[in-house]
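Bench log. Compound arrived from synthesis this morning; before running ITC I wanted a structural hypothesis for how alpha-D-glucopyranose sits in the protein. Inputs:
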Amino acid sequence: MKRILIIAVAFLIAAAPSFAQVSIDRKVDSLLAIMTLDEKIGQMNQLHPDIHDLETEIRSGKVGSVLSVVGTEWMNRLQKIAVEETRLGIPLLNGRDVIHGFRTIFPIPLGQAASFNPEIVREGAAIAAEEAYHEGINWTFAPMLDISHDARWGRIAESLGEDPLLAGIMGAAMVEGFQGADPENISGIAACAKHFVGYGAAEGGRDYNSTNIPERRLRNLHLRPFKAVADAGVASLMTAFNDNDGIPMTGNTRLIRDILRQEWGWDGMIVSDWESIREMIAHGFCQNEVEAAYKAAVAGVDVEMVSETYIRNLKKMVEDGIVPISVIDQSVGNILRLKFRLGLFDNPYWQPAEAPSSEKALKTAQKAAEESIILLKNTNALPLNAYEIRSVAVTGPLADAPADQIGTWVFDGDVTRSVTPIEAIREMYGDKVEIIYDPILNYSRETLPSDAEKRIRRLSKADVILYFAGEEAILSGEAHCLSSISLQGGQEQLGKLLKETGTKVISIIMAGRPIALKPILENSDAMLFAFHPGSMAGPALTRTIFGEICPSGKLPVTFPVDEGQIPIYYNHNSTGRPSDGKEILLHDIPLNASQTSLGNKSYYLDSGKDPLFPFGYGLSYTSFEYSDIRLSKTEINPDESVEVTLTLKNTGKMAGAEIVQCYIQDEFASAARPVRELADFKKIFLQPGESIEVKMQISPSAMSFYDINMNYSMEKGRFKVFVGKDSDAPLVGTFRL
Ligand code: GLC
């Protein structure tokens, strides 16, 4: 029976002009035409080995994809059942969270964003895809594109920061790295943009919490990176857990059908998040799983991740005319299209192959880590010169924490591949300087031991102290939110005690989120920050500390003074009473001060108006001079760009890279626009004394937004242009549209 049907399908396809030219859509339509309703609904069902009897379910034609099956032998066994023991033999997808590496771990996505280097991000994703495919994975649940302004939210670690342009560029680079260059012919593994949409704005920074984002804000901020990756050909997309203004994303017909499908014309496959269909009952949006299945299906969620409401309820609703068969056909069409794009029908099985080279992977992971390191402070402390110092003390809970330095979302990370800072320092500089090692704290939450003072005295005998502090990996990631973003345990105290010894202290912070750094910053002569930098944290940090390379990372997210300032971000609106930073602060208020409602502005009495560090901030060991900055035009028509040209010179003594940033402000518009928006950036590497002409573009899309009437438009008026090394960049000119 099955062979007859396969021949029938082949005939239908072959009858077309020529097999090679048959479009994927023709193949999808031909296959849909002969599928039963059960087989169609089976494709919409995704199961997990820890919960379901995969072999039985696959054999009964009730499974279109699985997740978290790791191992080609196991996956081939399941695939063989799907291909050879079901009527139509439709191959399976196997998804996995390959978020920032598979066996070899790259910096967490927030760290990769700090590199402002899409090429190294693409390379990392390509290596992750190679390693994951080698072990039976053909679909990853990445890139995560949630825009977040909240360091309390554990998943900010997984995000690409607060700026929609940067997140979109980095997300598109990951998509190309995972999938290869041709989305119609995926040579790697299918990517999955998540979580659609607005999840990063969870109220209070509490995971899974409600968001209340009006449509204009969704379109002008949260949807932008998703549009960028949709245009880049991302194969799939995952709906988010949050409800927005009471409507769970997994049942949000407006956003999925009207915007994603209708407006954008995106034809990829949509998967729910883990049980997010059934969770619409807990949301109070559905009374039971029948209603949950109904609302998710008609909203356009193609695949149900593990909650099985589709397989249990859709058939009857179609037979009763409640769910039109067209809804099922659209979803199954999206699923089959992805499987054709992946070439699964031609090559459903994993062939035995050489394991990808871990050496090449680790080399790339080290480069990615190096480019993600941000220098936050340096008062004549860095870089160390191994020929001028005799001894270094190494301390802190992250000096030798191979599992913590690789951060969150590393289900398959090979911790044995980690090289820790103490290992790298011993390996690379153990023959040049004396190394005194004592972590004092064994993990980030530990309080100071009773003998700390004595042990610190021993460390202080060194010429310089390297203090590796930060967060255990488990303190960020999904559902791991904190109401305080200060360093945990005795870390701040340890920093203070180290400083009080009088020995120079260099703090190196590895964390999954922005940290309230002020207390430790005050006790550091220099500070490097790395968002959990991955397997090669040790060599990357060591090379930076000892000046083999120059730190070039920039903050992809604002660092608040403390959690009280959250949300605080650079691309904010002006408000009617923008602070000018001259307001009276808490300790300057005279006793018995008279009350007044005059001259009030938007700021905090205690922490003022500024964050600790702004978006785009990062220092260097060398220095750069910006000169001869000019705009190509001061008057433009709506379809024109403005080119910003400048000369950048390395005026220091070390080779290094500068991330030149260009921001604009649309001064007046039918809906208030942010005081700054990143319009373009360039990462430029220069030798000492070298200078180069840098060109950046302010494109029509940078000037466009959803206006008062929700139309995507550019409005006449004046734009300010800011160019510099971070989002506090100076005004360099204006142009008029
Ligand atoms: C999780 C996450 C999602 C992940 C999925 C599968 O709950 O929200 O990002 O891809 O489940 O692990």
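What the model suggests: Residues 97, 141, 194, 273-274, 478 surround alpha-D-glucopyranose (CB under 6 Å). The two ends are 67 Å apart (CA to CA).
ITC booked for Thursday regardless.
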